[in-house]
Amino acid sequence: MDYKKYVATKLVLDGVSAQEIEELLVVPPEKEMGDLALPCFKFAKVLRKSPVMIAEDFKQKFTSDEYISSVENVNGYLNFKFNKTQFVKELLGELQSQGDDYGKSDLGNGKTICIDYSSINIAKPFHIGHLSTTVIGGSLYKIYKFLGYNVVGINHLGDYGTQFGKLIYAFKAWGNRQDVEKYGVKELMRLYVKYHQEAKEHPEMDDVARGYFKDIENGDKEANELFVFFKELTLKEVSKTYEKLNITFDSYNGESFYNDKMDIVVKELQEKGLLVESDGAQVVMLDEYNMPPCIILRSDGASLYATRDLAAAYYRKNTYDFDKCLYVVAYQQNLHFKQIFKVLELLGKPWAKDMEHVAFGMVSLEDGAMSTREGKVVFLDEVLDKACEKCLGVINEKNPDLENKEQIAQTVGVGAVIFGALYGGRIKDITFNYDKVLNFDGETGPYVQYACTRCKGVMRRAGNGGEFTIGEISQDEYALAQELAKFPEIVKSAGEKREPSIITRYSVDLAQAYNKFYFNCRILGEEDNVKNYRLALTKSALTVLTSCLGLLGINVPEKM
Q1: What pLDDT score does 304 carry?
Q2: CB neighbours (10 Å) of residue 231?
Q3: Predicted TM-score of the model (pTM)
C-alpha cells in the first residue's frame, strides 16, 4: 500500500490539499521517531499558526487504525508509526507476488529516453577515464528500462577528425598490419604517441596528416580501408570489455555517421540568420547568454564537434522521437552542451528543453591528467584483470576448494570496480589509485554480493519454506522490512536525479540491515512458523539486493 497517499488522504484541514501533504511526508532520520513525518512549518504562513499548533490540529483529526498505530506531535513535526504486523504482512505479500518485478513501474510507459554514453575513441585505448561514463550510462539504461521507459543506448563513437590522418601517417611510417593485429589498440596507441613525439620536431607532419584525413573524407580507397581496419579492430577489442561490464548499446552511430547530415543544420542556421562570420569562421553568437560563440564551420569550411552534435540531435529526434535525450559526459564539456542546447533553442526546436547533460567528475592519475598523446593512461582491462586476480587470491586463501572459483573471482572483481565507480556522487572528481580500487573492505560491491550469497546459503539449508502467520516483530526484522519497502522509491529517485549512487548506497544499507537480522534472528532450528516467516524475509532481501546489483550492471555469484 502507498502509505504516504493513505496518510495524506486521512489528514483533512482547510487550506491544505492532500497532494501538498503527500509531497511533504518524509522518512524521519532516526527510526525511533517513526515511519513517516510531516513537517508542518510550510503551512504556517497560509494557516497563520505556529507549526506546533498546526501539527496538533492535524493530530486531532487523525485516528489510529489497522495501518497507523500512533501519531505524535513533536516540535512541529507530526510523526506516524505504522502497525508493524500489517506493514510487514503487506510488504511480504507484495514481494512474494511480484518477485523480480518488485519495484518496477509503468512511470515511463509510452516514453522514450535516448542515452549517449561511453562514446569511446576509435584507435585509442579503453582506459580508466572511460569507466565513469560507461557504467553511469549503463546503469541509467537499466534503471529507465526498470521504470518502464523505451530506452535507446547510443555509443557516439569518436571516429572522425584529423587524429585519423595522424594515425595513417604513423602507420605508414613506423607500423605494419601484423603488429596491429597482434597487439591491437595498444600498438595503435604506440604509433599515435610516436607521431606526437616526432611532430614536435617536425611540425610539417601535421600538414601531411591533414591531407590523409581529407583523403578519408573524399573517399580515397587506401585511406578508408585503413580507417575501417582501425575501427573494426577497436570495436572487436572493446566489445570484450563491454561484455565484462554488462554494457549494451542499441546504436554505434559515431561522428562519421553524421558527415552527410550536417548540411541541413548549417542551411537552417543560415536561413534563420543565426550564422555570422568571425575571423573567417561561421559561428552562432551567444554573448547575450554569457557564452562565447558556438563555432559551426572553421575558416577552411571544416565541421566541428558542435556541428556533428547538432546533426546528431536532429537525427535522434527524427528517428526516436525522444522525450528525453541524455548526454553522460564529463563536466569539462559543460559549456559545449550549454551552447548546443541554446543553439537548438534559437533554431526554434521545442524539444531543446528535453536535452540534458548528465555531467560527472574527471578521472586523473596521481601525477596529473591522463593523456593518450603522451601515453599516460591506465588501461581499463588491466584494472579489471587486477581486481579479478586479487579476488582469486582471497578465494585461494580462504576457500580454496570453492567450485568455479575463477568465474566467481571474475564476477566479484568486475563487480567491485563497477560498484566503486558508482558509489560516490557522479559529479565527484576521482584520482585513480590501485589500492583504492582494489580495496574490497567496507561499503563495497563484494560486501553486497556476499550478503546475497549469505541469503542463498540460508535458502539452500532451510528449504523452500511454507505458509506462516506473523507474530511479534523484533526490531531487526522490522528494520529489514523498512529497508525493503524503500526500494521502489529508491529506483524512482535514482532515475529522477540521474544518479546510480542512490542505488549503490541503498544496497549497502539493505545488506547491513540483512546482516544484522541474520546475526540476531535465528532461522534454522526455529519452529516452522518463525522459520518460514524469517525465510520469507531472507528471500525478499535476496530479491531486492539482486535487483539493486542488476541495475548497476553487477552479477551475483552463487557462493563466495
Answers
A1: 87
A2: 18
A3: 0.92
